Amino acid sequence: MTESQLPGTWPTTGGFPTVWNVPPRNRNFTGREALLSRLRSGIGEQVTAMVPHALHGLGGVGKTQMAIEYAYRFRDSYDVVWYIPADQPGLVRSTLARLAPQLGVAPATTTGIEEAANSVLEALRRGEPYSRWLLIFDNADEPEDLTEIVPPGPGHVLITSRNHRWESVVDTVAVDVFPRAESVEFFKKRMRRPIAEKDADQLAEALGDLPLALEQSAALQAETGMSADEYLRLLAERTTSLLSEGKPTEYPLSMTAAWGLSVAKLREHLPEAMELLRCCATFGPEPIPRAVFRPVEGPVRPEIAHLLADPIRLSKAISRLGKYALVRIDSGTAGERTLQVHRLIQALLREELTSETRHEIRSEVHSLLVGAAPKGPDDPANWSVYEGLLAHVGPARVAESRREDVRDFALDVLTYLSASGNHQATQSHVETFLRQWTADSGPEDPHVLRAQRARGDLLRGLGRYNEAFELNSATLVTMRRTMGNEHRDTLALLNGLGADLRARGLFLDARDHDADSVRLHKSVLGDGHVLTLRAINNLAIDYGLTSDYRGSRALLDEALRTAQLPGQGVSRGTVLNLWTGLGRAVRQCGDYVEACDVGEDALAYGRELLDPDHPRILLTQKDLAIAQLRSGELADALELARDVHARYVRVYDLDHPGTLAAATSLSNCLRHNGHLEEALVLASDTMERNPNMYGPEHPYNYGCVSNVALLHRVLGRPQAARELNEQALEGLERRLGRDHHYALTVAVNLASDLAALGDLKAACTLGKDTHQRLSRLLGDRHPTTLAAAANLAADLAAAGHQEESQALFEETMRLFAETLGPEHRDAQVAGEGRHLDCDFDPPPI
To answer: CB of 502 within 8 A of CB of 510?
Structure first.
């Protein structure tokens, strides 16, 4: 440690780090020089923060204030300083996620909290763009809670905790009560008028040098003008009464006595402020949004109702609580005002209440939470509000309420968590709600069923498709019996179940299910309702997955027109989904140029609304890349496919369904642009990963196998290609039947394998059968049918059937000229008598 860093000689810094999120500094902070010196020395000697430092100690000794003071004193040593409340795991990830934009990674509004937090941790680990960072995890409990959260890397980590188990895990700095000299110094600094050293010493002795108790005492004396002698006399009387009442030993007696004096004076001068403090004690120990305190409709005690209805008196009460040091009043990072009550004070306040009053105040807090929650929890504009409320859902025991409005609020919290991508918190809260509500109201209660639907959505989002299907199927049976087929919750679950069926590869079952769903939606809600349009979108996906591309296109064309009518009130996100789906259906019909036109319009529309990394943008971009590839814009397609795949990998991971689809698209673009080896590596990796997501028998797995087979043949390994394509064709025929487009695409490629191996008879036999089936399924003019015809013409010529070959060749070239045009790459390859290859791109589930 240099001389300038020795206690009392630390340099003064003016500026703040580039990225800064730390609560306001305590202007009355006193002492702790030796501890700060030890902490700085220990952290500074680390090459990396592989082993974090921790502060531990009893409640009220000032661990948090010391951590905050450390951040302010040494802020010039860091480019990033980020404070994280750590007593609730869900809050840890959401606070980490808020750091994403400052590190140049995708924000939670585009990727979800879970992915954003993971991206932040990875950026910190790499030290990019900042290697000098400090994370403060405040009020951590068990070390295991932070195992996956504390990032190794070039920065520093500071943890505060009351749990002594941290001593066996990391280096620790024990934070005890003030030394007497620091207690005396604190009183001299905190009091408005001069105080004799003798009086300060006596006060410190009586209060046990506990910083929180000292703060309570100094605030009360400063606010009321009470002398030290009077305070000591009252404190002695208070201590005696506390001893006679047998206060629990886990609460420091000095703290309890000091708190009792402040409360007594508050009750005497402003009794409604005391009731407001009791209300705050039933929230969590995290900051309480000031906006929560406003008139609400739910049950509220009369004294609080009157206070909330009088803005001037409410402001006075809040101010008085702050002056008595019973609450901390701050402005958050976004400028929102918050109130925070120390957890020790909360515990003391709750302990003095009767069971009946506790229940009454808890219901009051529930009413305030309900009143503060905005409509539209899936709207990113409202997420910051829900994040502020989330910290109080558990401590206020929201799950225990049987009120409908409170349970509706709880379900809105689940919607927010799911939409923002906070899977960990979603899972924790949905399990809590389900366990409590089921015990209180039974498994068929409407709120229980809605929570089950939320859990099913979570399982699907996590890629646990079979579990989601089983849960949603069972829930749907109960919903139909208890709510009826036409209830909105039943209809919403119907849509989700269709996706579950598709995820299991049951395309025909999904189509039949969604067709019934659309009819029911139209009957109950009408053609233009947003839920109806979403049901139509699902059915259109089913049509595409069952080779009815024209039917899919017609559905989406009509739905998009309806969604765009004035006054429909359909969200832009739903419009974008329909628009992207229409572009995909147009491509699947073989109209490649038109598909590019629709896809470019959809992408431009989406970019007006959403971040480039938003999943809807990524999906639209991927589909446009495929359309560009099919239309012959090979270089543009490759550039777009590379970009979207890189975004998927960065925002999600290699095993995400979107990443797997983007990898397939990129591999196909690489092959068309001549990068064969790179394409094979990517296609093979995707083929290996796909069954882990969808199961071994899903049609998408066999489609990926056929892409690898195609590359083997192009690279001169036709026998390997044949074996893989035979495996793929057998699997697809077993799952979908021979007359499905996917199976027939593989058959086209398998015929080419046979021809390359010299088995022209088998190639022609398979080619004729496949061409006939494709003509019946997709029509003579579809590009896949034309590819089958062109390949068959080439094989017939090689086998010596010149007359038959020539007739088929001339008809095929005429149709190529009328559809794709004579300049299209497929037409040129067919005109040269070479084989056309058909690859696979998986649509979204």
So the answer is: yes
Tokens of 253: 């007696």
Q: What whole-number distance in Å separates Cα of residue 232 and Cα of residue 225?
A: 14
Please name which of 339, 337, 310, 321 lies closest in space to residue 275, comparing C-alpha atoms: 321
Tokens representing 342 are: 């120390």
Q: Mark residue 354 as left, alpha or beta (left: phi above 0; alpha: psi -120 to 50; beta: remaining).
A: beta
CA angle 398, 400, 405 (to 5 degrees): 60
Write the pLDDT tens digit of every residue in 41-88. 666 544 222 234 566 555 666 778 888 888 888 888 889 999 888 877
Residue of 572 and 698 predicted with greater confidence = 698
Q: Kindly list the structural domains of the chain, giving each domain's residue range(s) and its CATH number in brackets, ordered by start.
A: 3-174 (3.40.50.300), 180-269 (no CATH), 571-696 (1.25.40.10), 733-845 (1.25.40.10)
What does 24-64 look like in DSSP terms, one character per residue? PP-TT----HHHHHHHHHHHHT-SS-SS-EEEE--TTS-HH
**pLDDT value of position 566:** 84
Q: What is the mean pLDDT of residues 11-17?
A: 59
At 110 the pLDDT is 67
User: What per-residue confidence (pLDDT) applies to 323?
Assistant: 79
Measure the CA–CA gap between 22 and 36, rounded to whole angstroms. 17
Cβ neighbours of residue 17 under 8 Å, at least 6 residues apart?
A: 75, 76, 78, 79, 80, 81
Q: pTM score > 0.85 for this model?
A: no
Strands 288-289 and 337-340: antiparallel
Tally DSSP H helices, then E strands, for the chain.
Answer: 37, 9
